[in-house]
Amino acid sequence: MRRIRGMRRSGERRRTEIPTWMVSTAGMESSARLKRPASMGISAPIFSLPILVFLLGLVIGAPLWAEPVSQNGSGQQDSTVGESALGANPGSSSPKRALKFSALTDSTAEGAWVPGYGEKERGTYGFEQFGNIRLEAPLRDRGTVFLALNVQAASGTRVSSLQQGSPALRMGKGYASAVELERLYYRLESESADWEAGLLRIPFGFGQAWRPTDFLNPPNPLTPDARPRGVLGTVYTFYPSDLSLFRFFASAGEDPTRVNGAGGVGGILAELHEPAFSVQGWYSLQAPSRGKERPDHRFGFSCKWDGEVAFVLDALYTLEGDAIATGNWYDRNWNPLRGLQATAGIDGSWGDFVALLQYLYNGPGVLDSGDSLANLYDTSGGDWRSLPPASRAVRVDVPVKELNRKNYLYGSLLYRLNDYTNLTLNGTVNLDDGSWVPAVFISHEPFQGFTLQATLRVFLDPDLWGTGPAGELGPLHTGRRGDFVVKVQVRF
Length: 492
Hints:
Blueprint (H helix, E strand, L loop, with lengths): L43 H4 L1 H17 L34 E15 L7 E18 L3 E14 L1 H8 L4 E3 L2 E15 L3 E8 L30 E11 L2 E8 L13 E9 L3 E10 L9 E10 L3 E12 H6 L1 E2 L2 E2 L6 E11 L2 E10 L44 E12 L2 E10 L5 E12 L2 E9 L3 H4 L9 H4 L3 E10 L1
Antiparallel strand pairs: 1-2, 1-21, 2-3, 3-5, 4-5, 5-6, 6-7, 7-8, 8-9, 9-10, 10-11, 11-12, 12-15, 13-14, 15-16, 16-17, 17-18, 18-19, 19-20, 20-21
């Protein structure tokens, strides 16, 4: 088994792991990017990218994954036709692999204080029960089938987050519930190559709190509990040495109802690991999606230097085909910085302390220096300051996202009180408008597999002190002045 393979399974990275308690949540709802209307035609080469990668793994990889076949005393091959596909290969001397099952469940209670928006301010509450079930089934000697399900039930304030992630929400008496397929894919392995296909995670980059290169599932410290969604795709990975790999990847577009390949992604990645550093570079091509006429090109670069203090650089550059051709970027002129998202961060540990500091430059943020938050909303729907977030009319002609300004900073400091208890102070800061979200987090594990967590957050901006306008991370825009969350997690 190649050494690098143990570091780079789906969703796993060779980097300093940042515990969940080191990041804060801002309770901000994500909004999908809305495209301006336009005609669209998909060229055959772009449409065929997922098919080409699938065939690459099937044709080139087939001899690599062929199982060894023993011969009987007469020189004829022993037949294994009709035997179960699960379990050990009778013609192989390797031990039988067992079926693996794992699960976790979270019980969450949340209380929040919200602005009144012209009425009396009030307190809100919510409850949620979450379960994640995982299954790994061996496929003879060379493969594994993976299955993961999310099961959720919620009430009160937790229902809104449930609706975002699970459109097929079932409303019952006292609670709303949803069941979501999180992963369903198989992996075939050899000494020099892997092939994966199905609903899976395709990870990129080594970033910590922010990781722009992970464009299919970008993490955000404002929502650290969000589980990375899978994509329908296929990945073929070749290992030329123990410390390097080449990867061909492809995935379907975001809109599952499109039949012309709209939004499909395909690309190639190279990665190298050395004792002191790791580096990754990749290129991808995305077919025009709804509202676009030309494909988008993405270039990713991520590197990490390991040591007592680790340094990480993670950068994504996007060339939007329509913007390059027309010179216009939605309602304004295009410039080279529009396509750049980059982070630089350091993290390290000293005794019982673990610290992380990371800066994010968000070039695609629609709000330039001096722009008001009002530029995110349709004025015909009323003044956004007098409306709760769910009632605001978001503009459809600009790409409104979770982060809409240019410069952000995240920092956290964890202190290990003992082997079972951690205390963390962290905060996310919008450097452009001065709004920020400080948080205090405590985690205690009385015994293995059972964890108690509590988080207290406050949403602040210059508007609170009368020194400036409302900020992106402030109480008026996020819809919260503060909240307190208690969670019990059980793993088995």
